[in-house]
Amino acid sequence: MSDGDTERLRDRALEPAATSPQDAAAHGSPWVIRLGPGGVPETVLNSGLKLTSFAVLAAATPLDMALALLNQNELDDDSAVVVLDGDHVLGVWAGLDLATARLRGPSRQATDANLIGNAAFVPLISKACRHEQDHVRCTQPLTFAEKPMQMPDCPNAAGLTPHRFSW
User: Fold this and answer.
1) Cβ-Cβ contacts under 8 Å for 73 (sequence gap 6 or more)
2) For the whole model, what pTM was predicted?
3) Each residue of 50-93: pLDDT tens digit?
4) Which of 52, 11, 13 shows the shortest CA–CA distance to 31?
């Protein structure tokens, strides 16, 4: 472990990520991360180039804090965590290691995720809308700092009837 007895995200089994499908194929990376303005991850695609819900957390984030934040924001079971070291993508935490850690959950000593007070721990969460109409799912991605109390209107790129974002 990197800092005393505190396990951090950088200590987990991170998978390599690329910034384009071509780079992913060339380097055998199972993840493609499309970066937006300022190098912030905007879209995450899995090995099948399917859009994946994800959170962005700093590499120094304590594991218990990360698990509390993921659970508090109800990320999907197949979500991924993009781990940043400064402005560099260190890797993606996903799959069996993430699923096992989420099932185990944060320790009883984990700090309340609402009282973190350190900008390094503030998550970025991207989810696809789950609204369905006539057996067609919206899948419009939106990014949040945390799960909103009231969902915003969905941009609705799929052209379904106007609706609120469905978490």
Assistant:
1) 55, 123, 125, 144, 146, 147
2) 0.74
3) 888 899 999 999 999 888 888 777 777 788 999 999 888 999 99
4) 52
Closest CA to 54 of 46, 156, 62: 46
List, in order, residues 6 or more apart from 24 with CB less than 8 Å away: 17, 18, 30, 31, 32, 47
Provide the sign of the torsion angle of the four alpha carbons 125, 128, 132, 138, taken in this order. Answer: positive
pLDDT given at position 28: 80
Query: Radius of gyration of the chain from Cα atoms?
Result: 16
Domain residue spans in the chain?
9-128
Q: What are phi and psi of 88, to 5 degrees?
A: -105, 135
Residue 28 makes CB contacts below 8 A (sequence gap 6+) with 16
H or E element, residue 93: strand 88-93
| CB of 17 closer than 8 Å to CB of 25 | no
Token pair for residue 58?
């700093």
The architecture of the domain spanning 9-128 is Roll (3.10)
